[in-house]
Amino acid sequence: MAYGRWYGSQVTLASGRLLVAGGIDEADGFSVTPEIRNSDGSWSKVSNVEIGDNLYYPRLLVGPQLAPNVDSVYILAGVGQRSVYRLDLPVAGTEGTLVNTGIRLSAAAGWERPLAMVNATQVLVQLDSGATELLTLPTTATGKPSVKSAGRMIQARPWSNFTVLPTGDVLANGGSGAVEVEKLVKVAYHAELWSAKTQTWTTMASELRPRLYHSTAVLLADGRVQSMGGGAPGPVLGTNAQTYSPSYLFNTDGRASVRPTLNAIPAVLNLGSTTRTITVGDASTIKRVTLVKTSSVTHSYNTEQRFLELGFTQVNATTLRLTAPANAATATPGYYWLSVINAAEVPSISKLVAVLQ
Question: Are the CB atoms for 166 and 190 separated by under 8 Å?
Fold first, then answer.
């Protein structure tokens, strides 16, 4: 790369290239010029573009394709990261275009607050106040993003994490009432769950240890969430981990729920394909097939995480035929957890599939 990027962000583009933006250079100044890692391993500066605000882990959101052979990325920038910008990056050449969409979140959403792509066009954003909003990205070149309320958590929780579950719901864990990394104030031991259907938050089980600055949380293949780390610096050094078991793993009497069985999947799911099949224990019980992209999380920001719902048809008693995502702007290239879900909203143990052109 041409610039140092301490606290920089990286995201996979629809074209398969990697966009790197923000961070601090060797002279403790902000690296305002984005760069792209090309498919051949070379690096290119994005000419004509400077991103000059809040460059600690800038939030990079790959949006729908608005023009042929152009990657479109939305960025939360400006004071409090309230303003929504769009960065267009033609696949050919090194020039980019950065435009202010004119759309803003209702309040500040600092870089110590998480967000999550809950489908191909919507982003769940935690505001500084503890309220959350849904940012909807346009699907046409003339469209604009939109923002609406998506519920409120019971407290503000900087340095928390958002983890998208196989059902499309979002788990929030960790954080506290203090932005300052050395303080132990109003620690949020409790988890909260955001329902994609009702767009409301519900208080869930509590952790035993605080998860603050430098903590992480990732989705596991069995549908649980691993919560780890925290500290360094901080009031508590979290050289440990805990595992959260979502309520879909239990019946109302506390016993383990009966999970659908996912027996075999293809190694690769090609975009636009309608011929790939999976085998399950009982195809008649499967009501949903979902993808969650594998995690790349640090500092309350999971750059690659996104959730997708797949269409499918039943072939026989144990086989389902999948309808793959239409394009790479919907499902950016990489590895995803594939799950099947029954009528009780209980997911199977997931399997990894590569989503490629």
Answer: no
Q: What is the DSSP string of 13-68?
A: -TTS-EEEE--B-TTS-B--S-EEE-TTS-EEE-BT----S--SS-EEEE----ST
Q: Which domain holds residue 9?
A: 1-110
Residue 181 belongs to a domain: no
Cα 234 off chain centre by:
25
pTM above threshold 0.70: yes
| Side chain identity, residue 48 | N
SS3 for 255-279 is: CECCCCCEEECCCEEECCCCCCEEE
Look at the chain and report how many structural domains it folds into: 2
In the predicted structure, residue 54 carries a pLDDT above the cut 70? no
Cβ-count burial of 18 within 10 angstroms (0-12 exposed, 13-18 middle, 19+ buried)?
middle
The domain boundary, picked from 63, 94, 110, lies at 110
Decide: 175 and 163 in contact? Cβ < 8 Å: no
List pLDDT tens digits, range 280-289: 999 999 999 9
